[in-house]
Amino acid sequence: MQVFDQHIYDIVEKGLQGNGLTEEETLALYRVEASSKEAAYIRWAGQELSMQAANGTAEIHAQIGLNSTICPMNCKFCSFASCNTVRKGKYELPKEDVLEYAKIYMEEGANLLLMLTTASYSFNKLVDMVGSVREVIPADMPLLVNTADMNLAQCKELKAAGANGAYHAVRMREGVDTDIPVENRMQTFANMREAGLSLSTCVEPVGPENTPEELTEATMRCISTNPVSAGVGKRITVPGTLLEDRGMLTDIVNANMVAVYRLATGRDLRLNCSANTVMTAAAGANLAWAEVGTNPRDTVERTEHGGRGGNIKQLRKMFAASDWKVLEGPSTGWML
Ligand code: SF4
User: What residues does the Radical SAM core domain cover (predicted)?
Assistant: First the structure.
């Protein structure tokens, strides 16, 4: 019988202390085969540490996609990208629908609300939407945006309108599989910080082609941005996109990565994403996303109408199946 790798065991034990790992240690864990006994230990440890970090409590964040207008940034994995042939022309959700979605999410118990747009969405419209949504949700409910790169003035404007933060990420192979320079992403992180907007980020969208070295680099970068939530999310294959033929990670491989992220970042991060399956939610992921409206990982007009968007009820069941309680009320830690 093959002997358990002592070096990996030692790294995991160090990770379990909750103070994070070095780049070299993180790389060693990303190199472990997903089907090995060491990987099973990594997944157990990821869950153990996340349970401690969040006191056994998971969260469901709710996303409203505002538009699917063709986007010039050409991210090859995205259904909105103009380089793909998935979407056509301009499509935006009316404001009354957005407000209705926001109210429904509050009734259903979402812990945070986020509005997603393409880079082609009018910034002024987004500011107006933030202000209007802020009026129909509780004052202590975190409100985030996921939009294009932002300058300092734009960050301040969003903050003044009622936003608490943004989801923003340097995506895998940014600048190669997208038309966005990494520096623009980094500048937005800095602008957000200066304007007082909190950050939600992730190592994503990860595909089978991404190496342990790439994952390690992205993990260290995420950790250095001091986010309120982060983790690892796999790329969802969207038919008709230029990356379709690269395929998709299995849930077990994604679960390993989620656990490695947790061990690498330590106990201070309360929210580890992405709990997209029971498998990842049992390996340390305690943040899941419910989705309505437009969705870059989908091809239908509104993802809740026969698309892939998960709802809060389904996500509660997933967390129950992996032994997590779900937080009641607004997520904390976003009000800078
Ligand atoms: S991922 Fe965002 S920036 Fe990239 S093409 Fe899609 S909507 Fe545009």
Answer: 69-217
- Please spell the DSSP secondary structure of 155-174, one letter per residue: HHHHHHHT--EEE----TTT
CA 74–ligand 1 middle distance (angstroms): 6
pLDDT, tens only, 288-332: 999 999 999 999 989 999 888 889 999 999 999 999 999 999 999
Q: Which two tokens stand for residue 279?
A: 């498998």
Residue-wise pLDDT tens digits, 182-210: 999 999 999 999 999 999 999 999 999 99
What are the backbone dihedrals phi and psi of residue 136, each rounded to the nearest 5 degrees, phi first?
-105, 5
CATH number assigned to the domain with residue range 6-325, chosen from the 4 options 3.20.20.70, 3.20.20.140, 3.40.50.300, 3.50.50.60: 3.20.20.70
CA of 244 to the centre of ligand 1 (A): 16
Q: Maximum CA pair distance of the chain?
A: 63
- E strands in the chain: 57-65, 112-116, 143-146, 165-167, 198-200, 203-206, 229-234, 271-273, 287-293, 325-326
Pocket around ligand 1 at a 6 A CB cut-off: 71, 73-75, 78, 80-81, 118-119, 178, 296
- Looking at residue 50, its amino acid is S
The domain locations on the chain are 6-325
Position 285 pLDDT exceeds 90 = yes
Q: Which of 69, 70, 76, 78 to mutate to test the pocket of ligand 1 (most atoms within 8 A of CB)?
A: 78
Which atom of ligand 1 sits closest to the CA of residue 171? 1
Strand 143-146 vs strand 112-116: parallel, antiparallel, or unpaired?
A: parallel
